[in-house]
Amino acid sequence: MSFELLLPTRVVFGAGASAALGSVVASLGRDALIVTGGLPRRNPSLLDGLAASGLSTTTVAIGHEPTVADLRGAAGLARDAGCNIVVSIGGGSVLDVGKAVSALLTNDGDVTDYLEVIGRGRDLANTPVPHIAVPTTAGTGSEATKNAVVLSKEHGVKVSMRSPLMVPTVAVVDPTLTHSMPRSVTVSSGLDALTHLLESYVSLKANPLVDPYCEDGITRAARSLRRAADDGNDAQARLDMSLASLFGGIALANAGLGAVHGLVGVLGGRLHVPHGLACGCLLAPVFAANVATARSAGTPVLQRYESAARLLTGDSDATAHDGVVWLGELAGSLELPRLGDYGLKPDLYADICADAARSSSMKGNPVQLDASDLEGILAQVV
Known about the structure:
Elements: E1 10-13, H1 21-26, E2 31-36, H2 44-52, E3 56-61, H3 68-81, E4 85-90, H4 92-104, E5 131-135, E6 147-152, E7 157-162, E8 170-173, H5 183-202, H6 211-230, H7 235-255, H8 259-271, H9 275-297, H10 301-313, H11 320-333, H12 349-357, H13 371-379
Parallel strand pairs: 1-8, 2-3, 2-4, 4-5, 5-8
Antiparallel strand pairs: 6-7
């Protein structure tokens, strides 16, 4: 057995933790690029706190899934302004832009030089400028991961810029910032977090250092995702989901993912299916397919699925099948759409599954799923 544990240099967690953002940033740099969502003044106290710290700031707003052009433009803006630190305040896409720009500021060439699949996939030669990640959603765990996901409109696919050097320098995780999330974002982001935790827990690269993050995170998400969706001001549920998101990010950065994310990455690029919703739709059928394959092959990972089922249900006697049932009921209770609503249809299955089979996420899936297995999974969510 061999493994490593990759973590942010510093994590500042807790209700109200974001009040210290100005002093955290000022200790690392003076000329900051601030990356926000489409409404930069959505969190005015944070921006005002940065201004009060005497920082020179330049702001870029990303109100959609980031594209290659967005990364190129944000990096150019930061270079022109002489920025030596990046602060990202927002959801996973915003944090991903922050990670990518912080790396591009110290490494020459175009963004495509560092992108996987469609680019050259170059390794970073130099350490990125300091990056402080402040999530305002609870799901992606991007504040603790080493990759930035970007949409290539030209190729119709989402790809990553990836390096251990891209893990944020500081993650400031304040659950109170998530209280204003609408129900749809709460559901989508929460399902993403749960998927990260479950896939990392059964991954081929699962290890003893990551397991506790997964186990605690699955327990928190299982008990609190519905509660946070039903009442956005449920402070304990919001805290649970922020921790589940952070732990999911740590888990996927170290143990990888699986077939859910392998398929979702392609579905997002081709059909623009919201990431978390697609995860939620696929969790039960992928869980079931992996369990069936593991059972027929007699592989030890079946025990991991049984453990996951007990964490999800809170029942010490739960079986892997009970986990499948629980996940299906979760999707129903959250009123998830069918993926056919986004244009998924049988004549697309073969191409989608072929692309998914080549994805980096699929490498962590604990069993080998063939094309017919993957197409069977898609057929259940149309």
